[in-house]
From TrEMBL:
Spans traversing the lipid bilayer: none
Record key words, sorted: Metal-binding, Oxidoreductase, Zinc
The keyword Zinc is annotated on this UniProt entry: yes
Keyword Flavoprotein carried by entry: no
Protein's recorded name: Oxidoreductase
Gene3D superfamilies linked to this entry: Medium-chain alcohol dehydrogenases, catalytic domain, NAD(P)-binding Rossmann-like Domain
SMART domains recorded: PKS_ER
Annotated InterPro entries: ADH-like_C, ADH-like_N, ADH_Zn_CS, ER, GroES-like_sf, NAD(P)-bd_dom_sf, Zn_alcohol_dh
Entry-linked SUPFAM superfamilies: GroES-like, NAD(P)-binding Rossmann-fold domains
Cofactor: Zn(2+)
Pfam families documented for this protein: ADH_N, ADH_zinc_N
GO molecular function: oxidoreductase activity; zinc ion binding
Source species of the chain: Subtercola boreus
Length: 347
């Protein structure tokens, strides 16, 4: 079968590989669509080993079940399903608490639970074998949207859900980086909170995509950016900042615009460093504010997100590519030519 693989450092190619054979507790999925993420681009251009050679990429997966292991009784052939992107054990203290994205048995202190397309073979292929416990029913959803839910949607949903106690009507949420994840963040904030939304991005095309959905849009290179954001909040700062970039500049911005006892969530992975200061006169972070580095989301988050998607309230830009154009999709994403999420569609 065809697959898009990380072959070696500096090389991602379309290759021919054997069709997966499922084991106990697994299902075989015929992939219908697979999202393309900046994570895949990072692997493609990394100069050091980040994942094993010959790993099939793709952690955003939707498809139809074509085979189940004999011990899998809760799923049936023909169901459209999506795949939870981190595989918890289901029995450790974190999984039992509903925090499968921090599983103690399959992950560790500094590395997450197994993820398709990262630590195991992913969904940029005609077929993928996955744990039945990681499968979430997604009947009726457009496959292109369904694929993107598993990361581009799940990551912001998890952060927004974790801060919903302070996202009351009249609160302010800032979204930094309005690409695939940022567009989902705007839609989710609109659907489940009463917050006033501010969108920030370097590209006018990205801001144009959400301009009529948010209270304010600002370019990230605006020299008056901090004062303009603070002015919209009466000088007090934003209640929640969702930073989908995570570089030195945006991390400094996060601290300068967050309100006292506000929450900064940084899913962005752009190698940034945040300066945490403790002096009485410091200006990097107000009293009570928190900054968190969230990972993915939980099973409950993904089930809830699927339910939200079924309401039709998640209107995001999706750029469709044929599977054979996967390398073009990666190049376009790397060059900043994709507005929203890129998704590969199988023939």
């Amino acid at each position: 079968m065809k697959a898009i693989q990380f072959v070696r450092i500096g090389t991602v190619e379309q290759v021919e590989v054997d069709k997966p054979v499922i084991g106990a507790g697994e299902v075989l999925i015929k992939v219908t669509a697979a999202g393309v993420c900046q994570t895949d681009v990072h692997f493609q251009h990394a100069t050091e080993q980040m994942i094993a050679d010959h790993t099939t990429l793709g952690h955003e997966i939707v498809g139809d079940i074509v085979e189940t292991a004999p011990d899998v009784t809760h799923l049936t052939v023909g169901e459209q399903v999506i795949v939870m992107p981190c595989f918890g054990c289901g029995v450790c203290v974190m999984c039992i608490a509903g925090k499968q994205n921090a599983c103690r048995n399959t992950g560790g202190r500094l590395f997450p639970a197994p993820t398709p397309g990262v630590s195991v073979n992913g969904g940029m292929a005609e077929y993928v074998a996955v744990r039945a416990s990681a499968v979430v029913p997604a009947a009726g959803l457009d496959p292109k949207l369904a694929a993107a839910l598993t990361d581009a949607g799940l990551v912001p949903f998890h952060s927004i859900n974790a801060t919903k106690d302070i996202l009351r009507p009249g609160s302010t949420a800032v979204v930094i980086g309005v690409g695939g994840l940022g567009q989902f963040a705007v839609e989710i904030l609109r659907a489940v909170t009463g917050a006033s939304i501010i969108a920030i991005d370097l590209k006018d095309s990205s801001l144009d995509a959400v301009r009529d959905k948010v209270a304010h849009t600002f370019r990230s290179d605006d020299p008056e950016l901090v004062s303009k954001i603070l002015d919209t909040t009466g000088g007090y700062g934003a209640d929640v900042v969702l930073d989908f970039v995570g570089n030195d500049t945006t991390l400094a911005l996060d601290g300068h615009i967050i309100a006292p006892y506000g929450a900064i969530r940084v899913p962005g992975l752009s190698d940034g460093t945040f300066a945490f200061e403790t002096s009485q006169t410091q200006t990097s972070l107000p009293w009570g504010a928190s900054i968190t580095r969230p990972y993915s989301g939980t099973y409950q988050d993904l089930y809830d997100l699927v339910a939200l998607a079924r309401t039709g309230k998640l209107d995001v830009d999706i750029t469709e590519y044929a599977f054979d154009d996967a390398l073009t999709a990666l190049d376009d994403l790397h060059a900043g030519r994709v507005v929203g999420r890129a998704v590969l569609v199988m023939p």
